[in-house]
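fyi for ur records
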Amino acid sequence: MSDITVSLQRASVSDMAGGAPRDYVELLKPRVMSLVVFTALAGVVAAPTHMHPIVGFAALLAIAIGAGASGALNMWYDRDIDAIMTRTRARPIPSGRIAPREALAFGLTLAAFAVFTLGVVANWLAAFLLAFTIAFYVVVYTMWLKRSTPQNIVIGGAAGALPPVVGWAAATGVVSVESLVLFAIIFFWTPPHFWALALFKSGDYGRAGVPMLPNVKGAPRTRLEIFLYTILLVPIGLLPYLIGFEGRAYGVIALGSGVFMLNLAWRVWRDTEGRASDRAAKQLFGYSILHLFLLFAVIVAEHGILQPLGLLS
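which gave:
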């Protein structure tokens, strides 16, 4: 009996007792959650209003819980393909440590709690946006786009791009041009980031039947689109500086880091030699995480530290 069959049997086994606390933490996708919280924090601190620290902390906690709920519901629905893919078969549901219905109940409970809490401590616009983000990620991306179109990451990326908009709305009660610019940065960052991963994990996605771009359109088309999206990402990453929303430090870092990422994307596009191509894709995937972190770290630093000290220029 294959490892895949064993994993699928474990995932469907019954109504065994729940897993250890660490298994439920893993359901929350903590690495993804940390990125969501960080980008939402940028939206909160960059907003042109002062949010009480306790209220701000409660709002960010609610956003974090909402992100965790999305992760749990994603793992509940994707348990069949997670059992097939090498990088996901050890997750709590396919490995049999948590029963599917327990993960579903866990995710739904967290989602309801997060939305209600954000509405109470901040405002109901932010709560609506958080609910929309969770629903978009679970229903539109996970249940529909992921298994039906190679554009799954492009359209579905809207869910991952919304946290700074939610954070801004939690602080101000409105959605502004500035918050939509932050949305656009993450939205255009997502395709090159995930398609770089898909290039060297195409076998995994192929076995699971997920129509990622390399499996449907081929590696050359994927490498070209990675390069084209990165070309768009560089000026979009500069928009906060160009519209006067961020200072010179942001502009310098956004330009320098963006050009470096563009160079990596160019290498992915031009490098077509087997393992060498995989190596270029892995480098781009790793650096893309650092690039997004740098942009939002500067936003947090400029508005959370420099601006209160009167040093933002």
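Residues 73 and 105 are 9 Å apart (CA to CA). thats all i got for now
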